[in-house]
Specification:
Blueprint lengths: L15 H11 L21 H4 L6 E4 L7 E9 L2 E7 L6 E7 L5 E6 L5 E8 L3 E9 L5 E9 L6 E4 L15 E3 L2 E8 L5 E8 L6 E6 L3 E2 L5 E2 L10 E4 L4 E4 L7 E4 L4 E7 L2 E7 L7 E2 L5 E3 L10 E6 L11 E6 L4 E7 L1 E7 L2 E6 L6 E6 L4 H9 L6 H9 L16
Antiparallel strand pairs: 1-28, 2-3, 3-4, 4-5, 6-7, 7-8, 8-9, 10-11, 11-12, 12-13, 14-15, 15-16, 16-17, 18-19, 19-20, 20-21, 22-23, 23-24, 24-25, 26-27, 27-28
Helix pairs in contact: 3-4
C-alpha cells in the first residue's frame, strides 16, 4: 500500500525540516474583528525568567562539529535528542541521535530533495521508533516503520508497509499507547475512510481497523476531524467506545482540537483572530494580538500552553520575529524572545531557534518543570479548590519549602 497522493487539505506533506520552518507561516491566516479581552505581555511577566525564575532552557548549537546543520525532531532529556543532520552542501541528510558531547550516532541515511522523509519520531525508555516515507518514480510515497535500540546498534524495519500514513507535523502522528505503536492512514475508498493501524512495540502483525470519515490522531484514544482544516462539520471520535463529540465551530473556521480544547482561527481580510475554547464552545478566549500566528500544528500542548509567533513581513529580517507562549491556566503571554524562527513541541519538551547560519541556536525547555510554578502562582494568597490543592501536593519535594495552601472542596 502507498501513501495517498491526494491527501486531505489539512494534512502536511512536506519533509520534517520544511514543516518545522513553515509551521508558523502555514497557520498565519487573515482574521476577524476583535471581541473580548486579549491577554498580552502587558498583563503579565514578559519573559520566561520573570514568569518562572527556576526555568532553565538548555542551549544547543544548530551546527554540529563536522559542519552539518542539526534540527531536533524529538528531545529525550537535557542531553539527548533525535533529529536530522544535513551536510553544508545539502547533498546528504541523516537521522541521528545526539547525546551530550559524543559524536552523533547515525540511525539512518536519507536522501534530501528526493521525497525521502522521516515523518515522525517517538521513543520508549529502551527504543526509538520512526516513520520513513520514500517517494517512487510515480510520485507515490511508501511509508515504513523503523526502530532502533536507544543503547546502540543498527536500525531495523519494523513494518515494511505502513500504508498511506497521515502526517500533520503533529505530536500525534505516531504515538505509543496500550503497549502498541499507533498511526492512522487514509483508505483508498469512496466515500473516504480512515484506517487505524497499530503494531506491537516488538513487531509482528499490523492490526487495521477502518472507520468512515477522515480523521487524524489526537490524545489517545481520540481521533479528530478538526486537525487544522476548514472542512465543515467537525467532531471528536473515540473508537474504543464509539462516542462522537461534535465540535462547536463554524464551517469557515480553521479548527485544531484535542479532547479537551480547540484552537480556532477565524479569517477575513484584516488579520487573524485565534481563540481557544472547549470542544463544546465553552470558555472561549482570544489569545493573539495583531500579527501573531499559531506556531504549532497541535493545540493546547499539555492541555496548558499555546505558542505564537509574529511573522516578519516580506523583505524584513527574521531577527525581528517574536516568539511567545500563552498559559491557559492564568491567561498570560510569556515572551520567548526576538529572532525566533521556529517553535516546536513534542512530548514534554519545547524547543525554539534563534539566530541564523553559524549562530543558529536551539533552546530546549522541559515544560513539566513549569507545572508546579504555575499551580503555585494560581494558589498564592487565596483559598484553592481541592483539584488545585491536589496538584500542589503532587509536586512533592519540589514544593516542600513552600507553605501548604488551605484547600476546600469547591
Amino acid at each position: 500500500m502507498t501513501r495517498d497522493p491526494h491527501p486531505p487539505k489539512w494534512r502536511a506533506v512536506g519533509g520534517a525540516l520544511a514543516a518545522l520552518a513553515a509551521a508558523g507561516a502555514l497557520l498565519a491566516l487573515p482574521g476577524h474583528r476583535s471581541v473580548g479581552v486579549v491577554a498580552t505581555a502587558d498583563t503579565g511577566p514578559r519573559t520566561l525568567a520573570d514568569r518562572w525564575p527556576r526555568a532553565r532552557p538548555v542551549s544547543l548549537s544548530a551546527v554540529l562539529p563536522d559542519g552539518d546543520s542539526y534540527a531536533p525532531m524529538l528531545v529525550l532529556d537535557r542531553d539527548s535528542s533525535i533529529g536530522t543532520a544535513t551536510s553544508p552542501d545539502a547533498i546528504s541528510t541523516s537521522l541521528v541521535a545526539l547525546t551530550g558531547s559524543r559524536p552523533p550516532r547515525v540511525l539512518q541515511t536519507i536522501t534530501p530533495g528526493s521525497g525521502d522523509i522521516v515523518d515522525a519520531v517517538v521513543a520508549t525508555p529502551a527504543r526509538l521508533y520512526w516513520i520513513r516515507s520514500v517517494t517512487d518514480e510515480r510520485g507515490i510515497a511508501h511509508a515504513a516503520v523503523w526502530t532502533a535500540d536507544r543503547s546502540g546498534g543498527p536500525a531495523r524495519e519494523l513494518v515494511a508497509d505502513a500504508g498511506a500514513a497521515v502526517v500533520n507535523n503533529s505530536r500525534y502522528d505516531l504515538l505509543i499507547a496500550g503497549g502498541r505503536l499507533r498511526w492512522v492512514t487514509t483508505a483508498a475508498t469512496t466515500p473516504p475512510a480512515t484506517q487505524l493501524r497499530s503494531v506491537s512495540l516488538d513487531g509482528g502483525p499490523v492490526e487495521v481497523r477502518t472507520i468512515p470519515g477522515v480523521y487524524a490522531q489526537t490524545a489517545w484514544p481520540w481521533l479528530t476531524s478538526a486537525a487544522g482544516g476548514v472542512n465543515g462539520p467537525a467532531d471528536l471520535y473515540n473508537p474504543l467506545t464509539g462516542k462522537h463529540i461534535p465540535i462547536a465551530v463554524r464551517a469557515d473556521q480553521q479548527a485544531t482540537c484535542t479532547p479537551t480544547r480547540c484552537r480556532v482561527v477565524t479569517a477575513d481580510g484584516a488579520g487573524s483572530r485565534i481563540e481557544v475554547q472547549r470542544p463544546d464552545g465553552r470558555d472561549r478566549r482570544r489569545i493573539n494580538d495583531a500579527g501573531q500566528a499559531a506556531a504549532l500544528t497541535d493545540a493546547a500542548v499539555l492541555d496548558r500552553f499555546e505558542f505564537l509567533i509574529t511573522i516578519a513581513p516580506a523583505g524584513v529580517a527574521s531577527s525581528v520575529q517574536q516568539g511567545s507562549m500563552y498559559d491557559l491556566t492564568d491567561h498570560r503571554t510569556i515572551a520567548l524572545g526576538s529572532g525566533v524562527t521556529v517553535i516546536v513541541a513534542r512530548g514534554d519538551w519545547l524547543w525554539w531557534s534563534t539566530g541564523d547560519n553559524e549562530a543558529l541556536t536551539w533552546h530546549l525547555l522541559d515544560l513539566t518543570t513549569l507545572r508546579c510554578h504555575g499551580v503555585r502562582a494560581i494558589a498564592a494568597g487565596r483559598r484553592v479548590s481541592a483539584r488545585v490543592g491536589q496538584q500542589l501536593r503532587s509536586c512533592g519535594d519540589w514544593l516542600s519549602s513552600w507553605p501548604r495552601p488551605e484547600t476546600n472542596s469547591r
